[in-house]
């Protein structure tokens, strides 16, 4: 990362597809699958970068995802590092359903300065701070998005 650069990263790749609920996901049951990887947080701490985690509410309702019950597609996708899954949207076609999409973004200021070699505890604390801020922003934006009070953003 160079000074002043903006980097956008989508952390919910192949793992997110296969951990999302099979079928159509109900409105207000959002999920973000991050797993145990913390490389992004380690990089942010090493460079003293400001993090702005974001989530698009409504994306899980655009398509219906079909999972094979044996996990063959998930295993093959991980091995090939390529997303292989079956999905359909409007009219049973690969066209997204109509629905509202809203971006929720949190601002997490950079730590006091770059850390040459952040410890595992510092990385985990920063991860909790960044994604805790995203969860708080989601909760604060629920009324504006028309989500019920019981709506949840599950981060795993």
Write the SSE topology.
Blueprint: H1 14-19, E1 29-32, H2 39-47, E2 54-57, E3 64-66, H3 72-80, E4 86-88, E5 102-105, H4 120-145, E6 152-155
Parallel strand pairs: 1-6
Antiparallel strand pairs: 2-5, 3-4
Overall strand count: 6
Average pLDDT reading: 84
Q: Compute the gyration radius: what is it?
A: 17 Å
Report how far the terminal alpha carbons are from each other: 26 Å
| Coarse morphology | globular
Share of helix, binned: 25-40%
> Strand pairing plus helix content: what structural class?
alpha+beta
The number of helical runs is 4
Largest beta-sheet details: 2 strands, parallel
Strand content: 5-15%
Structural domain tally? 1
How are strands sequenced across the largest beta sheet? 1-6
SSE topology string: HEHEEHEEHE
Task: Show unreliable segments.
Answer: none
């Amino acid at each position: 990362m160079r000074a002043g650069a903006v980097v956008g990263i989508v952390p919910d790749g192949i793992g997110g597809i296969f951990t999302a609920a099979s079928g159509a996901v109900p409105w207000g049951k959002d999920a973000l699958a991050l797993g145990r990887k913390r490389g992004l947080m380690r990089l942010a701490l090493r460079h003293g970068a400001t993090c702005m985690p974001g989530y698009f509410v409504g994306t899980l309702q655009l398509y219906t995802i079909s999972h094979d019950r044996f996990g063959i597609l998930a295993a093959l996708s991980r091995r090939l590092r390529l997303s292989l899954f079956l999905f359909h949207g409007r009219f049973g076609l690969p066209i997204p359903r109509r629905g509202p999409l809203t971006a929720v973004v949190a601002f997490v200021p950079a730590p006091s300065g770059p850390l040459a070699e952040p410890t595992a505890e510092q990385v985990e604390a920063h991860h909790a701070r960044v994604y805790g801020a995203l969860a708080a922003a989601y909760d604060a934006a629920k009324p504006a998005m028309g989500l019920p009070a019981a709506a949840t953003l599950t981060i795993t």
